[in-house]
Amino acid sequence: MSSQRYSMEYQSASRPAAQLLYVTCATSDQDWHSMEHSHYFSELFFVTKGKGYFQIEGEKIPAEKNDIILINPNIPHTELGNRANPWEYIALGIEGVQFCSLDTSSVYDYSIHKIQGENKDIFAYLDFLIKEAKEKKSSYQPVCQNLMELLLLCVARVTRQDFLSAPRQKTSRECRLVEQYINDHYSQDITLETLSSLVHINKYYLVHAFKSYKGISPINYLLQKRVEEAQHLLDTTNYPVTKIAEIAGFSSQSYFSQAFKRMTGISPNAYRKLQKTDKS
């Protein structure tokens, strides 16, 4: 029998003070172009298939399979899709750190790197992270957080990067815009994608930020506004329930009745009768 022991020689280096905000898996199989936007957090992109382009501060940057793109906070950017040459990428939104060069310690706007050979284990860790995020098994959040830290350390080793702390800001301005948009347009067809495009924030992070801002998700806030309007119409008009559902922005009377009862505890008709009884 033979065995080998590998002792750990710990250094003073600390773990990156980063928090994983979201994981996005994107496929570009059609022509599209969004406005350049920026975030207060960093984004780490892994191109997993095909070829495409990033537009960063007005500059068009080609990227292809096995490329990693590091974009620091507050740097305007977008991704460019095309039907002729579709591509896929995975993006991590990471709060609390910004990337800098290990050689010069200088902070840059972005950098792009090729992952080759033995370093492709990085993509195995990435697959594990996506699997955990999708399946949401017990304790998946700390597992995803630790996998993100592992990815950061591996990417830093391969690309000769270092990490600096970055301010943890709140997206209160964007959340206020979403709140006002819902207040003004609740009767229209609004989806999470609509709100995400409005403020150029990843939809999963928008849910996280808006919950911190209002204590409720954007879609539940939208439902709350629609039910409030329906309550007002039930109390002040003789419109039939079908008409009120339409005015308040619900797609059908049955959906309206379900949402109304879930939020108020009674049906729309029961609410109207109750209001009339109270007044008399």
Features:
alpha+beta, 2 domains, Jelly Rolls, 280 residues, eight-stranded antiparallel β-sheet, Arc Repressor Mutant, subunit A, 24% strand, two-stranded antiparallel sheet, elongated
Would you kindly provide a written description of the structure presented here, covering whatever features stand out?
Helix 3 (172-185) runs parallel beside helix 6, helix 6 (218-236) runs antiparallel to helix 7 (241-248) and helix 6 (218-236) packs across helix 9. The strands form two sheets. Strands 1, 2, 3, 4, 5, 6, 7 and 9 form an eight-stranded antiparallel β-sheet that branches. Strands 8-10 form a two-stranded antiparallel ribbon. The chain is 43% helix and 24% strand. It has two domains: 19-165, Jelly Rolls (Sandwich), CATH 2.60.120; 172-279, Homeodomain-like (Arc Repressor Mutant, subunit A, Orthogonal Bundle). The protein is built from nine helices and ten strands. The protein has 280 residues and is of the alpha+beta class.
